[in-house]
Design brief:
Distance between the termini: 37 Å
Strand content: 5-15%
Number of domains: 2
Structural class: alpha/beta
CATH architecture of the largest domain: 3-Layer(aba) Sandwich
Strand order of the largest sheet: 2-1-3-4-5-6-7
Radius of gyration: 22 Å
Length: 276
């Protein structure tokens, strides 16, 4: 008998991605979508019809919550009384679980799986006319998984589902929910997205000072490629003395001395509270 999955938010942006990758899998998928636009999208793109919530939850083995972080707490509380003991509840982000928004049901399994997205260095990401920047289509990506609650043997099922919904998967890492929160929002959003946004502002600034816009964009993106390749040891190499001096004098102008405090537990908790 195949493992059954109730996919909530099946017609949303992320839900459709998951629905596509679950097609042809050994799992029996029950699609749940409240919005008519999402329901129609599933019909048009995948030939899938949604089912009622109670039908989807009837003796189900796994529930995937492909909904925004702000809705997970309420949705999980609504469906928890309808779940049998041992049911796996899977979220796609650590925010809500980290914030304690999942119901106090020690007899349920809580699993979190999140994509790393394809590396900027993988050639499949940049194929002309057919790029896959997000992942889950053709470009391989790694994933991180956390068994937050439940017997250790449940991890294998959660990881297999994660490999299915995020395929093609390059590598799969087991972490804790706390470690996943360090990765996002800590590393990926608070640090990476913020610094990239600053880089975009810097590009706009040099344009405002007279540099042609296309020249500035090509110059910045090109240097991002080679500098990233050296910094992350994708290739052997080292920076020039001039570049190293620019970093030495530039970093204190751009970064506070105490910036690494963003990874302290309370800072991560505050960030997640704002998100959820």
């Amino acid at each position: 008998m195949s493992t059954s999955i109730a996919l909530f938010g099946a017609g949303g942006k992320m839900g459709v991605r998951l629905s596509k990758n679950l097609q042809g899998s050994p799992y029996e998928v029950r699609h749940v979508e409240v919005g008519e636009v999402g329901r129609q999208r599933l019909r048009d793109e995948l030939g899938v019809e949604c089912c009622a919530v109670d039908d989807a939850l009837n003796n189900v083995d796994v529930v995937i919550l492909a909904v925004p972080d702000t809705l997970i707490g309420k949705l999980a509380a609504d469906i928890a009384p309808k779940l049998k003991a041992g049911t796996m509840v899977m979220t796609l982000d650590a925010a809500a679980p980290f914030a304690g928004h999942l119901p106090k049901r020690p007899d349920l399994v809580y699993f979190v799986a999140h994509p790393c997205h394809p590396s900027i260095f993988h050639p499949r990401v940049h194929l002309e006319g057919d790029p896959d920047y997000f992942g889950g289509v053709k470009a391989p990506q790694s994933i991180v998984n956390a068994l937050m609650q439940g017997p250790d043997e449940a991890y294998a099922l959660g990881e297999d589902i994660a490999k299915t919904i995020y395929q093609p998967v390059l590598r799969s890492y087991r972490v804790t929910v706390e470690q996943m929160a360090l990765l996002e929002p800590g590393l990926s959003e608070t640090v990476c997205a913020t610094l990239l946004d600053v880089m975009r502002e810097a590009m706009d600034e040099v344009v405002s000072r007279g540099v042609p816009a296309e020249a500035a964009r090509d110059f910045l993106l090109g240097h991002m490629t080679i500098l990233s390749a050296v910094i992350f040891k994708q290739i052997p190499g080292q920076f020039s003395d001039a570049c190293n001096k620019a970093i030495t004098f530039g970093k204190p102008r751009l970064m506070r001395d105490d910036w690494k405090q963003i990874f302290e537990h309370q800072e991560i908790a505050d960030s997640i509270e704002r998100i959820t």
